């Protein structure tokens, strides 16, 4: 039974300060919950509707997960979704493994929009990118909007929060590509497969102190009249060029 105290606790995890205090976060909806179950993340509580349980009984049983069954109205009342007819999990945060360069990695400088971050995580997963290194001002990894936009990819990509200046100084044997307004045409760039791609803030671009560390300035040529691309769109276009010959 969902008590008032449990309800209050779960709803508190919608706020960043309580997620950080407790080291817990929420996963909602059928797709993300199933991806979570198949991941190495530890689940504290799994709340489901009868319909979700009946459709996924085997996978839940095979992973030895205890569930609490709620009515759709009850589940929706504690969810960040307007309506949640499937599942909600309370999950322990996980410390990423020690950073190890694993081919081409992404570096995100001050990407503040959670939806953009979640979409970039999903893009990284699509292209087989294992590591994303983020500045201190990039959006919180376990924001519900990040989780939702990642569509489960957050459980397969390593996320690191670093001082980017210090991190980049250590990458002496790697090509560092920066997405800038002026640079080599991304469609003509010969990307090295152990490189790093820096994507900057949606409004202000890459922090000026990082510019001298970039070995390759690249740009997406504009043909039409659109003023700009958001960070996730730019990342998708560049990644498609990075991996075009694979």
TrEMBL record:
> Organism classification, top ranks?
Bacteria, Pseudomonadati, Bacteroidota, Cytophagia, Cytophagales
**Could you give a single Gene Ontology term from the biological process aspect?**
RNA processing
Which keywords appear in this protein's UniProt record, sorted alphabetically?
Methyltransferase, Transferase
Q: Which organism is it from?
A: Marivirga arenosa
- SUPFAM superfamilies according to UniProt: alpha/beta knot, L30e-like
Q: Which stretches make up the tRNA/rRNA methyltransferase SpoU type domain?
A: 106-239
Q: Which family does it belong to?
A: Belongs to the class IV-like SAM-binding methyltransferase superfamily. RNA methyltransferase TrmH family.
Domain MRM3-like substrate binding per the UniProt entry, residue ranges: 6-82
Q: Which residues form a coiled coil?
A: none
Q: What is this protein called?
A: RNA methyltransferase
> What Pfam families does the database record attribute to this sequence?
MRM3-like_sub_bind (PF22435), SpoU_methylase (PF00588)
Q: Which GO terms describe its molecular function?
A: RNA binding; RNA methyltransferase activity
């Amino acid at each position: 039974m969902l008590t008032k105290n449990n309800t209050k606790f779960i709803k508190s995890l919608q706020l960043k300060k309580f997620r950080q205090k407790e080291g817990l976060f929420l996963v909602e909806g059928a797709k993300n919950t199933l991806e979570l179950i198949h991941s190495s993340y530890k689940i504290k509580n799994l709340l489901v509707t009868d319909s979700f349980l009946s459709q996924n009984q085997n996978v839940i049983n095979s992973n030895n997960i205890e569930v609490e069954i709620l009515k759709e109205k009850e589940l929706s009342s504690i969810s960040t979704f307007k309506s949640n007819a499937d599942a909600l999990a309370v999950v322990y945060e996980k410390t990423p493994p020690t950073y190890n360069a694993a081919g081409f990695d992404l570096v995100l400088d001050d990407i503040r929009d959670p939806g953009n971050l979640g979409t970039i995580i999903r893009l990284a997963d699509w292209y087989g990118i294992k590591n994303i290194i983020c500045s201190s001002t990039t959006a919180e990894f376990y924001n519900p909007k990040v989780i939702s936009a990642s569509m489960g990819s957050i459980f397969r990509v390593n996320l690191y929060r670093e001082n980017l200046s210090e991190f980049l100084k250590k990458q002496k044997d790697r090509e560092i590509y920066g997405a800038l307004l002026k640079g080599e045409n991304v469609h003509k760039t010969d990307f090295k497969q152990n490189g790093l791609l820096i994507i900057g803030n949606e409004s202000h671009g890459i922090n000026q102190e990082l510019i001298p560390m970039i070995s390759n300035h690249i740009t997406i040529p504009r043909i039409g009249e659109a003023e700009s691309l958001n960070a996730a769109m730019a990342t998708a276009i560049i990644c498609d060029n990075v991996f075009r010959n694979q």
